[in-house]
Amino acid sequence: MQHDASGKLPVMARLIYLIGPSGSGKDSLIDAARGHLQAAGVEIARRVITRSAEAKGEAALSVTPEDFEHMRSAGAFALHWQANGLCYGIPVQIDTWLASGRPVLVNGSRGYLAEARRRYPDLLAVGLRVSPEALRARLLARGREGVVEIEQRLARNASVLPYDDDVQVLDNSADLHATVQALLELLREQHVL
Ligand SMILES: Nc1ncnc2c1ncn2[C@@H]1O[C@H](COP(=O)(O)OP(=O)(O)O)[C@@H](O)[C@H]1O
Ligand SMILES: O=P(O)(O)OC[C@H]1O[C@H](OP(=O)(O)OP(=O)(O)O)[C@H](O)[C@@H]1O
Fold first, then answer.
1. Regarding predicted confidence, which is higher, 190 or 55?
2. Ligand 2 centroid vs 5 CA: distance in angstroms?
3. How many structural domains comprise the chain?
């Protein structure tokens, strides 16, 4: 946690906004880095998603579209967006964490990056990169979506803007543990850890 010049008051911490194509490894990276990040005082936001609870490999909270809309209108989300036919929300609790000086990592959306930056001008955008061939193979191997949905997710990549210079790019084509180390190194360089 960072403090002001007096060393007493916590300073608003940074939001770490992890983005990347579907299948690039955002969830895997978060899971593999979770222990290191939590030990370093980084909170990891749990997404709320209108995805069925049966969906495999999902650490998020699954809700119905009606429940999502109730939560949204009640102000439950600090950030929320729609993509892939789903609604995604980041709980407003992250603002309490940030205000108390604890950095927060979220699994974000490339399509929502501009709005997220408007809300959190100081956010650190971290973008994963993987070759198109590896993406397709990983999505098929993950097996969470059917072939049609996988093709839609791959097609989405063509319509999303490429990373700008303010996105810190990490390559996740090779070993996941190397990407974990690269993320931790980046967070140290950026004075988040
Ligand atoms: N570095 C890696 N090497 C090999 N497979 C990986 C790597 N990172 C992730 N994967 C695999 O790729 C698939 C997609 O990863 P996932 O974390 O679900 O991506 P995302 O959350 O970005 O959609 C998963 O089956 C995961 O096990
Ligand atoms: O604008 P984009 O960058 O395309 O992102 C769209 C959404 O896809 C990801 O979620 P989800 O867990 O549904 O997909 P993924 O695990 O396949 O990336 C990501 O967290 C966004 O919520």
1. 190
2. 39
3. 1
